[in-house]
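ok so for the tutorial part 2 we go from a plain amino acid sequence to predicted structure tokens. step 1 is just haveing the sequence, like this:
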Amino acid sequence: MTGTDHYDVVVIGTGQGGKPLAAAFADAGHRTAIVERGRVGGTCVVAGCTPTKTMVASARVAYLARRSGDYGVHTGTVRVDQSVVRRRKRDIVDAFSGGSQRGLERHDHLDLVFGEARFTSARSLNIDLRDGGRREVTADRIIIDAGARPTVLDVPGLD
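step 2 — the prediction. this is what the tokens look like for a chain of 159 residues:
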């Protein structure tokens, strides 16, 4: 795409705040873009809460199955197939992320842009598109919902 596109609102990130905020602006008639460099859904859906809770649920079932005799329920040897646990987790993440993406794509006045946004001024962004291209956009409002990254704090003895 050549030239610069102008939006009323650009939201960077499709997490717990960005997705509904962009949808609300679009539904109110504002020309809106939401930029995502990874998968739709943000840290919680893609790498944090959802995958973690899915894995914990599998661990809980294994724990209860192994203790079933304590409750008068007798079963055979309990085995955990990690490949099935991981596949189930991936399938759930894919379903949540895909559903979130389809939800965004249904809104009029909302463009979902896959790429990494960088500020070039207070109201301008360069977006390195996932497909290798580049796009320049300006907006009256730019909202950052960029998610989280894990880090190890520099605390003596923590490592």
